[in-house]
């Protein structure tokens, strides 16, 4: 018996990807992530709400979609080393794909701001981690210059191969739903993802695989909301570290996605983001990292402001897995377990209120 296994985004969608012909796929079989229906959010809004759960990718975030293409092209072009700036997930992903490809991964991260899980991934996959006394934007500038002056391939989303891989998430959504949704919500940091989704939706509409393109609504943290403010933020600050970015590299593409789709950028407080993270975990069983909950927080905020979504079809991308940053997830919980009993069934039953 042969069982079909998802082959990863390059082999599944190669004919739709603008990468050099014959590029060998460096893959961990990323993509093919589930669209999970959100009973909680559908009930709350009267809409049909789907979660695109990108934490199910091999390294736990959507970054793997773009990393398979960026790393494959780098290998095809003969690279021996690669570099990225990262708030955590890009470095985790790059290090894993570099390990698979046999390249040397060099990671630039802002000092003291990386979630423990992501740091563990970068290190275990063999990344050489260099901490920079500065923020993500400083790291990205350095990564760009390193790749210009030294023989290392830059795999941040300024590398066009990244968006080629990332646009496959939009293809998967349309392939599953049979058309594009009416609305798409997602967090926005460096803005590569919203740009890639818009590219994917636009290409599928052009090919006649969908009859429409969704309204794109991007969400940023209040302390790191350059696209909402219309100006870069010098010292971005938020607990949602994956979107702690003050000067998005894909600024123009993101603005085009917003304008062409009739969408918007909205800022959310950290409290709103963290509350959405907790509720999503307890009501839908989907544990995401803080930044990943921004799209859900955005929907909750719009509903609270009186917006009517009844009858609409909405997809929310939840970008990365909750296990990457358990420290932030548990911050609001105080003492975690306050009941301790002897190894006695009756005592446990009494403590649980069953007896
Ligand atoms: C990278 C990342 C984002 C932000 O995506 P951009 O493409 O930088 O806008 C959001 N959430 C998670 C979990 C990420 O890793």
From TrEMBL:
Q: In which pathway does it act?
A: Amino-acid biosynthesis; L-threonine biosynthesis; L-threonine from L-aspartate: step 5/5
Name its co-factor(s).
pyridoxal 5'-phosphate
Signal sequence coordinates: none
Q: Which SUPFAM superfamilies does the annotation name?
A: Tryptophan synthase beta subunit-like PLP-dependent enzymes
Family membership: Belongs to the threonine synthase family.
**In Gene Ontology terms, what is one molecular function of this protein?**
threonine synthase activity
Gene Ontology biological process: isoleucine biosynthetic process; L-serine catabolic process; L-threonine catabolic process; threonine biosynthetic process
Give the catalysed reaction(s), semicolon-separated: O-phospho-L-homoserine + H2O = L-threonine + phosphate
Ranked from the top, the taxonomy reads: Bacteria, Bacillati, Actinomycetota, Actinomycetes, Propionibacteriales
Q: Amino-acid biosynthesis: is it a keyword of this entry? A: yes
Q: Which positions bear N6-(pyridoxal phosphate)lysine?
A: 63
| Protein name, per record | Threonine synthase
Q: What broad class of enzyme is this?
A: lyase
Tell me, in a sentence or two, what this protein's role is.
Catalyzes the gamma-elimination of phosphate from L-phosphohomoserine and the beta-addition of water to produce L-threonine.
Where does this protein hold pyridoxal 5'-phosphate?
Answer: 89, 189-193, 319
Write the record's keywords in alphabetical order, separated by commas.
Answer: Amino-acid biosynthesis, Lyase, Pyridoxal phosphate, Threonine biosynthesis
Which species expresses this protein natively?
A: Nocardioides jishulii
Q: Report the PROSITE patterns cross-referenced here.
A: DEHYDRATASE_SER_THR
Cited InterPro entries: Ser/Thr_Dehydratase (IPR050147), Ser/Thr_deHydtase_PyrdxlP-BS (IPR000634), Thr_synthase-like (IPR004450), Thr_Synthase_bac/arc (IPR026260), TrpB-like_PALP (IPR001926), TrpB-like_PALP_sf (IPR036052)
Which Pfam families does this one have?
PALP
**For the Tryptophan synthase beta chain-like PALP domain, which residue ranges apply?**
26-320
Q: Tell me which EC number(s) this protein carries.
A: 4.2.3.1
């Amino acid at each position: 018996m042969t069982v079909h296994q998802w082959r990863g985004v390059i082999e599944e969608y190669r004919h739709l990807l603008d990468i050099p012909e014959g590029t060998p796929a460096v893959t961990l079989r990323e993509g093919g992530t589930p669209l999970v229906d959100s009973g909680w959010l559908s009930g709350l809004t009267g809409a049909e709400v789907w979660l695109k759960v990108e934490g199910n990718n091999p390294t736990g975030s959507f970054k793997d979609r773009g990393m398979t293409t960026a790393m494959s092209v780098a290998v095809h072009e003969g690279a021996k080393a690669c570099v990225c700036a990262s708030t955590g997930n890009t470095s985790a992903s790059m290090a894993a794909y570099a390990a698979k490809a046999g390249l040397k991964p060099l990671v630039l991260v802002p000092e003291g701001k990386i979630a423990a899980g992501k740091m563990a991934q970068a290190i275990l996959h063999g990344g050489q981690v260099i901490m920079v006394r500065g923020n993500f934007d400083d790291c990205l500038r350095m990564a760009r210059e390193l790749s210009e002056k030294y023989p290392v391939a830059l795999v941040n989303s300024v590398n066009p191969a990244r968006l080629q891989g990332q646009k496959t998430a939009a293809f998967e959504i349309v392939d599953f739903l049979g058309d594009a949704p009416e609305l798409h919500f997602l967090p926005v940091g460096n803005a590569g993802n919203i740009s890639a989704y818009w590219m994917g939706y636009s290409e599928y509409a052009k090919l006649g695989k969908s009859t429409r393109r969704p309204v794109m609504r991007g969400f940023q943290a209040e302390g790191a909301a350059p696209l909402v403010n219309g100006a870069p933020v010098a010292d971005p600050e938020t607990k949602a570290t994956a979107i702690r970015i003050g000067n998005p590299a894909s600024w123009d593409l993101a603005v085009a996605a917003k304008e062409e789709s009739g969408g918007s950028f909205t800022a959310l407080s950290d409290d709103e983001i963290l509350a959405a993270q907790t509720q999503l975990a307890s009501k839908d069983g989907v544990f995401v990292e803080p930044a990943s909950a921004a799209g859900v927080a955005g929907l909750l905020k719009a509903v609270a402001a009186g917006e009517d979504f009844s009858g609409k079809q909405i997809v929310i991308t939840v970008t990365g897995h909750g296990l990457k940053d358990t420290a932030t997830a548990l911050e609001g919980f105080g003492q975690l377990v306050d009941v301790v009993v002897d190894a006695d069934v009756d005592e446990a039953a009494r403590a649980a209120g069953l007896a």
